[in-house]
Amino acid sequence: PPQDPPGPLEDTSAKLVYDDAHPWIAPGPNDMRGPCPALNTLASHGYLPRNGIATPAQIITAVMEGKEPSNLGVNRHSGFNMENGIAKLATYAALLVDGNPVTNLLSIGGKSSTTGEDLPQPAVVGGLNTHDVFEGDASMSRADSFFGDNYSFNPTLWDEFVDFSNRFGAGKYNLTVAGELRRQRVQDSISTNPTFSFVAPRYFIAYGESVFPINFFVDGRQTDKQLDPNDALAFFRDMKYPDGFFRTGQPMGIEGVEAVIAAHPVAPGANRGTVNSYTPDPNSADFSNICLLYVNFVNQTIRNLYPNPTGVLKDALNRNLDFLYEFFDTLACPQIFPYGQ
Ligand code: HEM
Ligand code: MG
User: Which of 110, 200, 234, 265 is the most buried (most CB within 10 A)?
Assistant: First the structure.
């Protein structure tokens, strides 16, 4: 059953997170890993269950800040110093579309029986690898689902990351590089993927992910926010903290995203079944209408998966929709209740 989300914590200092209590252990054959380099890393260091199956409270705690005794029975020593509001938004969005709201478990990779019995179709409960509900196209280190594998580290794409860091960042990944690489990844997909889709929620997530490496993968003792691609590779490919890594010294979220958006503005849209047919989609939310992101995510993405929930499923969905809304409440978006109040 759903539990209350962990709140913000007190100790937000930079500190060693690759410590003796969190040794890196390579995932075993049954351990789930997927498209998010941060969650993969947290699982391989034991900040998340090493099998890659976790509750929302475990995920929020693991990505967040601080170290303090828990009132929730979870170990609150956490790995990245992500700010509480964004952590809750990403986690409840993921649980609602990729997880099992009844057992309160989410796979950070592929579908797993460990998250519980299947829910009535068309629910998927497929883990973070599931295409098009959270995971989407034009990722930096993973290929588009159209090409077969949307979750494994892709060395060819990595070469582009390094090349852009060399060309636009004097060898480091920074906000300038993020703006250029974001456009490049969109152009790559427009010209090679006939099914390319870049509408909300993916549209928003893509821009957030472009700045996450700068905000979270740079060592917390370093203040210049220039990410060495070798350190980035530890996260993206090896699912591992660089040796002696300190997390960032203040709670962070999507800082810097305006610069990435402004570098090369793109309207949300999609190819129309052929390459090079990108067409803006006026029904998608964009940065001028963030409440529409919430409304469409609830009324389209979630309702497509759960058209008519009843009983414990309906109660769990409502509870988690309330948690999801907490972020949009701070933006003064009106709450919507697809399954009643
Ligand atoms: C990508 C989920 C937290 C960094 C992704 C993707 C998912 C995901 C589903 C794949 C999207 C795609 O590229 O198609 C989550 C969830 C989180 C979370 C549920 C819970 C809070 C974080 C944190 C960081 C992070 C804390 C940074 C420390 C990234 C990056 C990517 C990514 C950099 C882009 C990978 C790429 O473009 O190749 N995440 N994530 N995520 N995530 Fe996370
Ligand atoms: Mg992707």
Answer: 200
Q: How distant is the alpha carbon of residue 178 from its chain centre?
A: 17
Closest by alpha carbon to 19, among 244, 250, 247, 249? Answer: 244
- Residue 167 has phi, psi (to 5 degrees) of -75, -40
ipTM of the complex in this document: 0.96
Q: With b meaning 16 or more CB within 10 Å and e meaning fewer, what string describes 182-201? A: bbbbbebbbeebebbbbbbb
Q: Which amino acid is at 23?
A: P
- Give the torsion through C-alpha atoms of 272, 154, 34, 202, to 10 deg: -30
Residue nearest to atom 41 of ligand 1 (CA): 38
Instruction: Kindly list the protein residues whose Cβ atom lies closer than 6 A to any atom of ligand 1.
Output: 35-39, 59, 63, 80, 82, 87, 90-91, 94, 128, 134-136, 139-142, 205, 209, 212-213, 216
d(CA 133, CA 98): 8
pLDDT tens digits for 131-188? 999 999 999 999 999 999 999 999 999 999 999 999 999 999 999 999 999 999 999 9
